[in-house]
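Can't paste images in this forum, so I'm doing it all in text. The chain is below; anyone willing to post the predicted structure tokens underneath?
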Amino acid sequence: MTFGTLKDFLEHYSGLERHALHIHAALFLYVLSMALFRQSRKSRVPWLVVFGIECANELYDLARNFEADPEAALAGSAKDLWNTMLWPTVLLLLGRYTTWFQRRRLPRPIDADVRV
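Text version of the structure:
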């Protein structure tokens, strides 16, 4: 099974359009790479994994489609890159620059025996 056949299979049997599959695959790869490489929410590594895989995917798509219609192939690749990288980028920025994903520490219970 070639990579193109695999993509066609996933599109056909999932019932999702290719653009939606980019979004789902990106989120799956982002979370998977966080787990596999044991990276925190602040790490750039999961984002780079998704970006690298997406670049390889788009190079493959361009090699298959560029000669038939170069303008449409480039536009499609730009749209795919946007769809793929949006949410991993948002998650990376939220993890690095906000406290949304930080664990909240509960206040210590006051010991009843301690008198002030």
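The longest helix spans residues 70-97. The mean pLDDT is 88.
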